[in-house]
Amino acid sequence: MSTTDVKGRCAPLMLMLLLQIPLLPPHDKLRKATQDDLDARVNVSPLDLPSCCFFTILNSSSGSGRNGQAAAAAAAAGLTAMTTSRDAKLLAAGFADSSIKLYNMALLGKQRGRLKDKLERRAGREEREAAAAAAKRQKGGGGQQQQQDVMDVDMEEEELQDELEDMSSQAVTRLAGHAGSITGLDFSVDQHLLFSSSTDGTVRLWSTELRRGLAAFRGHVYPVWDVAACPHGTYLLSGGSDRTARLWSTEYARPLRIFPGHQSDVDVVGWHPNSHYAASGSSDRTVRLWDVASGSCVRLLTAQTSCPTSLAFSPDGRQLAVGTEEGIVAVYDIGSARRIALLEGHHGAVWSMSYSQGCGSLLATGGADRTLRLYSMPRCENALQVLADELAVVGSSSSDAQHAGSTAAAGAAAAETAKGTTGTGTPGGVSGSSARPVGTGGAATGHVGHHTWQPYQQLRTLSTRATPVVHVTFTPRNLLLAGGPWTLLAPGKGH
Question: pTM to 2 decimals?
């Protein structure tokens, strides 16, 4: 077969890959879980702030026999990555010794309840032993019965101890396979898979059900700094020190796309909500938006004051928030590629960010200064949200028809902006106590009852005593989750 024939047969396949990256339809279980999440979702807003469930990893240092400042430094370097599943039942933590620990939060909670039962039974046993001893001294008729009861309690306690040991082995699983420090973790959308990146230059795939490694993706020449799972399908992104971001599929060992263009390490990567675009942040102080189908760069965001350390898209895909190592969060309008606000407040690197689900009116950020901060953001104007708002205020058939037209226009504009085909967006910001808006135009002010709030304002600061915040996320039900390693502090440095 000639080279011309091979090229002719490969041309249709290459054309198909160029047109689109196929997304697998969700299975029934995932579809039902998504519907349950939508039904149980709690609306949060600047006037209805969420509480936070915070996970602290204790004894995260892999070293031993250390104390003082050496122990503090080891503890700080022990935990290097953390992520939670969408239903908050699984938590994965990566460490500098190349290990990954998978925590089953449901079993840990059950284990705690059974441990409480064990303590109660032990207290009852001591009371029964005391009663049996008293009966024996008095040579009463109930002494033998009391001794039999004590023996029964002993057997129940032994069975409970065995059950607790089994739970302990299942609640926390250690995954080994990497040869370098863990730098990134993320769960697949169905939670059956866990992706990890490491300084050994590989991305690994793990099964959360089998608790075993399934595959290793090799392609990056140097350390891989971050990994992100696709919101739809079985794709993943990775970024490394070879200055490239790469697109992978769980069905192939080689990357489907390589995104070159950065002039330094690619430190963070993230997916657009529609999965047709991907973002990468680099140490060259730029953020690039890539078209997944063609592999081309469609947006270049250059107004960075320092290196990006985290990324977060708004639920409607119109805005992109970028956290930096100097503690500033820059908010960009994707349609116009302009920076519209600077959120200040952190006194160290911003390591993780997340928008609230639904209208996306809150942005949660966590960083090295051991604080979690909540900022107000403009409401997302996606078609479903606009339709829900308008149906709530429609009073007559004529007004219904009028609002239907505006809903269709808003939905079309949102869809075009999500695909990056328009350059309008909301290019303005309203000044707040912790934000510096950039550009012209004004963002809408929200009104709820007699209260008023403005976008890009810092609403609340949640501080920890000795835990840097390395992971922040809103679940699909708008439960705010965060976590980090417990670290020792030098005297006088606590908050």
Answer: 0.72
